Amino acid sequence: MNALSAALFWQFSCASYALPNIKELLLSLQDKHNKNINLCLLLLYLEQQKIQLTPIQVKALADLCSDIDAQTLLQHRQLRKHIKVSYQRHPAYQSLRKQLLTSELALEKFQQQLLIEHLESDTLNHNNVSNNLTFYLDEHHALALKQCFFATKT
User: What integer pLDDT is reported at residue 149 of this predicted model?
Assistant: First the structure.
């Protein structure tokens, strides 16, 4: 079994996020359905690695994401959006925006590291057919995300 790597997961996430339609779908899931983008990407990553989680494992990961989001990421995103709305014309806005985006990416990367660390302490099962997303997303959104992702891989 290949050990999970936070660095490889980060690379996978950056590459996947750049694929056509993935970014828009993930942001829609985050903004309209309160889903965590890092968890969606992790579940896709694990499917690609042919690792099948249980519903209990996915729920534990979702709870971990919710905790991290509540403690750091949501507040950071709200601050970034507030500054965009209130200070977009300020001369320092572009520099501040860049710094906020950089720190938000660092928080996203940290969340991914915590997710991988959590999985490393768990028993993981390999399976030729993995469908982890269906334990987190409704069937329609899981299928849409898989189609966007795998359509670009063929």
Answer: 87
As to burial, measured by CB atoms within 10 angstroms (0-12 exposed, 13-18 middle, 19+ buried), residue 106 is: exposed
Residue 2 confidence (pLDDT): 59
Q: Which pair of tokens denotes residue 66? A: 């919710």
Long-range contacts of 8-16 (CB under 8 A, 24+ apart): 9/41, 9/42, 9/45, 9/112, 9/115, 9/116, 10/109, 10/112, 12/41, 12/45, 12/48, 13/38, 13/41, 13/45, 13/112, 16/41, 16/44, 16/45, 16/149
39 in Cβ contact with 136 (< 8 Å): yes
pLDDT along the chain (154 residues), means of 10: 85 93 95 96 95 96 96 90 93 94 94 96 86 95 91 64
pLDDT at 114: 97
